[in-house]
Structure formats: structure tokens, C-alpha cells
Design brief:
It comes from Reyranella soli. Belongs to the 4-toluene sulfonate uptake permease (TSUP) (TC 2.A.102) family. One of its GO terms (cellular component) is plasma membrane. The structure is a single chain. The chain is mainly alpha-helical and about 260 residues long. It has one domain. The chain contains 11 helices and no strands. The protein has helices spanning about 5-25, 30-40, 45-50, 55-70, 75-100, 100-130, 140-155, 160-170, 175-200, 205-225, 230-255. Helix 4 runs antiparallel to helix 9 and helix 5 packs across helix 7. The relative contact order is 0.23. The mean pLDDT is about 75.
Amino acid sequence: MLLGYDPINLVLALAAGFACGFLNTAASSGSVVTLPIMIFLGLDPATANATNRLPVLIGAASGALDFAARKAMPWKIAFHIAAPTTLGSLIGAGLAEIVPRRDMGMVVTAGVLFAALLLFKNIKNAIEQAQAAEVRLRPRDLALFFLAGIWLGFIVLGGATCMLLILTLMVGLDLPRANAVRAAALVPVTLVAMVVFAAHGDINWVLGGILSLGSIAGGMMGARLSLSANAKRYVFVLLVVAISAELLQLAWHYVFNRL
């Protein structure tokens, strides 16, 4: 036993952390991997939800630094959306501490399904745009980022996907810049939520640290994929897989387990 976990579980946690960092940076929804793994390793859902913020934070920071090193980070836009999204995350994390998780989980499941049904037909076209004709950041978009921040602060699942959709479909960013902006914004967004959960003693630092080690490499690999020539094709496939897995996981955990 090492750090309270056997070697197989440690390898599993490292692999889950890598997948989390990679998916969150290249597409979205890396939490569909880490949350079930943490519950499998013995964490209750509330602790898993809180602990998950650590690999998400480290992976986002790793990806953002890689984008910045490659001169692919639109810092001005990232700063503009970080403020409302971070404020929303603080509210969402507070809600996660006081609202019954299973009831809110039903709302989140319905939200993910609605977003998938409403926007899925537009995702591929948005991702395949080589360049957007115009970058627009309007008050309505900032309000949407605030709502996405609440979602991210509460449960993470689906929030990063919504950010990507807002950045591409409404703000008008092409895929590489949208992923770069999202990675940068996720750093303060996740940090404030993590502070709230840490203050309540909900984070398993040992398991979170192990997941974060894998998330560093995953975030860097995800950033490189986003900037590659094949990014548009691969990221769309990853989004399809991630959204589908997200819906299945949420439905199983919050719907079928209630029957």
C-alpha cells in the first residue's frame, strides 16, 4: 500500500487524471472519467465532486501555459470572461454545500440534455470554422458565462462544454482560441470553488494530488492537439464521446439510482 492505495489503484488514478486534463483542454468533460473513478476508489459523491477540482485546476493551468508558450492565448478575451465565470463559480460552489446533491443533479442532467438537443446540430459547423468572421463579446454573452460559472462551481460536468459552445457559437472564436480562452478561464473558476470546498474539509488531497500528476501531462497533450492540423476533426469526435458519456453518467447516477 502506498499513500493508502494499492499500486493498481494509483495507476488507475494517474490515468484518470491524464484523461481529465486531456479532455478538458482538447474538448471538454474530463470529469466524466475522474468522478466515477474516485467513487470507485471509495470516495462519496460529495467528496469526489470537491476533490475533482484539483485535477481540473492543474490540467487547466497546464493547458493554459502551453497555449501561452505557443503564442496562442487571447489574453484580453480570457480576462473578460474570467470575471463573470469566476463569480458564478463562487455561487455554484456555495450552492453545492447547501443544496441536496441528488435533487440538483436532476436539474443538471436535464440541462445537459437540453444543451445537447438544442446545440448539437451546430457544434460541428462551429468547430469546422477556420476563422470566425467577427469576435463578439456582448452583455448577453457575459451573462451566459456567469450562468456557466454557477454550473462549473456546482458540479463541473457540462460547464466546460457550455463555455466552448458560447465561445464558438456566440462570441465567434475559432476552435484553437476558444480552447485557449476556456483553459485560462477555468483556472480562477476552479480555484475559487476549490477554496470553498477546502474550507468545508471536503477535498481528499492525497487522491486529488495523484490525479493532478496525470492531469499535468494530459493538459499539455490536449493543448497540442487543439493546435494541430487535425484538431477540428478529432475534437468533434471527442465532444460527441464526452457529451454522450456525460449524459449516460448523469442519468445513471441521478435518475436510475433513484428508482
